[in-house]
Amino acid sequence: MERSEKFDLIVRILIPLILIPVLGLGTRMHRGQQAQQRAQLALTAGAHATAAEDLAEAAALLPRRAGLWEAAAQQAYQANDLALAQEYFLQAQAQDGLSVTGQVQLGEVYRLNGDLGAALQIWEAVEASAGDIPVLYTSLAESQRQLGHYPQAIEALQSLTYLEPGNAAAQYELGLLLAVFDPKAAPAHLAEAAGLDEDLASSAQALERVVRRALTAEDSAYTYVLIGQELASQEMWELAEIAFDKSTTENPEYAEAWAYLGEARQHNGGDGLKELQYAIIYNSGSLAANILIGTYWQRHDHLETALYFLQKAAALEPDNPAVQVQLGSIQRDLGDLAAALGHYQRATELAPANGIYWKALAAFAVDNEVFVEDVGLPAAQRALELDADDLEALVLRGRAQFLLGDLAAAQESYAQIIAGGYDYAPAYLHMGILYLEEGLLVPAREHLVRAMTLDPDGPVGAQAQMLLEKYLE
Length: 473
Hints:
The protein is mostly helical and 473 residues long. The chain has a domain at 30-98: Serine Threonine Protein Phosphatase 5, Tetratricopeptide repeat. Helices cover 80% and strands 0% of the residues. The chain has helices at residues 3-44, 48-61, 68-78, 82-95, 100-112, 116-130, 134-146, 150-163, 168-181, 186-196, 198-214, 220-233, 237-250, 255-267, 273-282, 287-299, 303-316, 321-334, 337-350, 355-368, 372-386, 391-403, 407-418, 425-438, 441-454, 459-472. Helix 16 packs antiparallel against helix 17 (303-316). The termini are far apart.
């Protein structure tokens, strides 16, 4: 074989071998670009999970293209796939390093996955290196409060409100914490929150008024009780417990503070009996102590014991309508509906202009399906005379009408709420029940589904789901 022929043969053999990696690289790059294009289409459609998958594929195929792993992680986070988001963020961190935003988001993923220590470690490192970033302080404040590190949470919120003075939520959160830990500093932030956001205005202004009044008290133990009561009324039981605990520290023999502390501890997952017993020991004649320890025993189905303490409370303050309602509820639980009715009616006599007690009387009648015509329906109508737009009273009237067989009137009561555009789950629930009674299954399903959507984790939603499963599945 001639030398030239040998050379041609070698070329024919080697050229394909040379081109294999080149062609492979071209194919790999093309596939990576296609994955990026698919990701862009998914992003346009709002399909975050698909976008994350496509971006991760692109990142694996195009290892020199910076930012793809972090983009994939962000889309997985948007899709609420926290495990995948964490995996992609760590891949980005190992390959390209994370942007400051990416580091903050990785910390948030750790927090949502329950690893607050890792989250705080990342955020504190970002704070030390990158300086003032509002979203960082938001995350720090949430995590520090979740850990019970209140001074650190306050510090983060102070930094956040300095950077974003117009952040109403941050101003309000800071005001809440300061109400317990530095009451003198709280009103300014609460007033700022109220001025910035009308949705927060009512709660912020109520707490601001109470804090200002509490600060005028000479007894600091009483100051903390007043603040704790307002926080409790706003369902801020975590902070209310701290306020009541501070009150007992200021005055260890303050019965009311111990009573409220026992109630708060129950709301926060504790038992609370020891604190309630201290309240009775320090002042057996305390109205709050007797009501709250009676409430404790009622919750634990020790109804005779509960009745004893509530009767003591009624003797201490016979003209208190709230005590009468609670006595009625205990007698109801004991099965003495006649005695219960007397207490509910007594409450309306003591406070005839207060719709709360007329609604309690109506609810007693319709819930137990007793005295509906003579008591329940008139009580609901009286509540509506006091407030024609009271949604709860409208539903109670509809329920009474339903029990009395006047389905058209009941439907009108519920429709008054629904047609008014109110997203009030009980109205949809009871309209659904009415349609079930009439055999109208399609609108029944629609209204029960709506009730479940409006109250997914509550008792109304649970009842709607039960009815759907029982009659419409």
